Amino acid sequence: MRNAVVLGAGIGGLLAAGALSRHFEQVVVLDRDQIPDTPVSRVGVPQGPQVHAVMKRGELAIENILPGFRGRLAAAGGTSLRVGLDFRVFEGGGWHPRRDLGFTLSSQTRALLEQVIRERLLANGNVTLRQRQRFRGLTSTAGGVVTGVAFEGEGAEEISADLVIDAMGRGSPIPDWLARNGYGEAPSVATGIDLYYSTILFHVPERWRGEPWCLVLRATAPDQVRGATVVSIEDDRWLLSMVSRFDDRPPTTVPDCLTFLEGLESPEIYERIRHAEPAAKARRFHIPESRVRFFERMPGYPRGLLPLGDVIGTFNPLLAQGMSIAAIHAETLGETLIKNVDAAGGLDLDGLASDYMPAVSALSHRAWSTGAYVDHLYPRTGGERPANFEAYHHFRKALRRAMEADPEIHRRAIRVAQMLDPSSVLPRDRILAEFGSEGA
Ligand SMILES: Cc1cc2nc3c(=O)[nH]c(=O)nc-3n(C[C@H](O)[C@H](O)[C@H](O)COP(=O)(O)OP(=O)(O)OC[C@H]3O[C@@H](n4cnc5c(N)ncnc54)[C@H](O)[C@@H]3O)c2cc1C
After folding, report:
1. What are phi and psi of 130, to 5 degrees?
2. How many angstroms separate the alpha carbon of residue 57 from the centre of ligand 1?
3. What is the pTM of this model?
């Protein structure tokens, strides 16, 4: 196969290009942004300055697509955190027990992560990145097979492609383009989360240099709405994201930030941040909703076009799923390509779409639902409550108690949360029997 075009050079687009580069002679990645040479935030990814954690499963998927990625990230300043020891979570009114859970996570800014992925990708000689190119439309045959992409940068241009990937993120213009061109609209489900992030960068005070850590404080719903995450990142800095919902906005000045942190359910984050000097001004971001689109249910979705990453689903960012889900989408793309290329190198577009689309949509729907269960603990959340909401939360409470008492259940629960294992590894019946009542 000759050419593939990827629209969007975010995390999903870069990883899709990595998966495609094993199968296509040439892969071209187009983005509207000027892509920086250094790890700084860019306009096309406005959520980029907020805390962006990669799950362990996401890290493994990236390494699988771009071997050598993890070593390069560590060399570029990614900080290794021992889960359960340096990386700790406050949930359900208390901190998870302090235990070594047997694996590490890497922490860094989203900009550094993207830069390392980009540099590693471009070492694959058949991938080209074209910046400052804005999507204009798709070109297709009368039979609805996509033949290429029209875009505008310095001039208007077209590029032909055997396969086009839409990885233009939450604001992708393709759903509108499809509607305007008679393809219809993808059915979708949404949760009105009305969540606010505010993020401030700090210099690490001298006494804490060389001690990487991450604290995630999740608000105890429905009484509390305020939470925060603080994490060590490259160049001796801490990144603090404060979150809240509805009418309550997280602060944007350092004095208000200290008041916000002092009032949280646990003082740990405040105790560190009050000694730190800010390194940059606060950046705020509003997330009105989380949504999953089911493109595979559109009768006329064009052949030769596949969606990936946030185009399919945007999630409650508090669960840190989006980039890892995009990475698993890209991994799935690679696997389904292997299945649908014949011995002569021909690509079965129908087979590819029917293997890829339901798989990635189910993955995004699962991730979206996990957030919906948490969000609907707040009565003001918009959208429909999941059907088995009460049973789900009864089990979550029992699991939280079991994690305190049983190190093996704790280890398994965190591996499930990091998407390393399926939830079937948790002994559900035993957890409910032993820890299902309040006094257990
Ligand atoms: C506040 C917040 C915090 C988050 N925290 C986390 C976290 O902790 N962990 C996590 O895993 N995820 C997190 N996410 C989600 C994460 O940001 C996304 O899931 C992830 O970036 C999706 O990658 P993507 O490649 O699909 O889209 P994006 O990364 O958004 O990339 C889209 C790309 O398309 C380009 N583009 C857009 N329109 C056009 C156009 N018309 N023409 C050409 N190019 C175009 C953009 O410039 C951009 O480069 C968070 C999100 C938010 C809002």
Report:
1. -115, 115
2. 18
3. 0.97
